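**Reference record**
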Amino acid sequence: MALADRLKDIYKRFSRAVIIAGGIAVLIWFVFFDSYNLLARIELHSEKRVLTSQNEHIRAEITRLEERLKRGLSDEDVERISREEYGMSRVDETVYPVVGE
């Protein structure tokens, strides 16, 4: 009977060791070898923070531009845009194009 008890004790210890080793192996797999391992998750979270801050900045810029659009363009803005982008001039003015190098 003592041999049967010793075998049961050895079996319990062995099964406990196998379960612990399996758990450690699964943990190591998830931390280092999985496609979304710990390092990849850290990188993804930092990228998410950067993209979130960029998104907030862009939303603020959109809000500012929408408010500017609601106000409309002043006469000075229209004149500046027509001179810079379309090369227009006043009636008695001569425009000389400057060619950069």
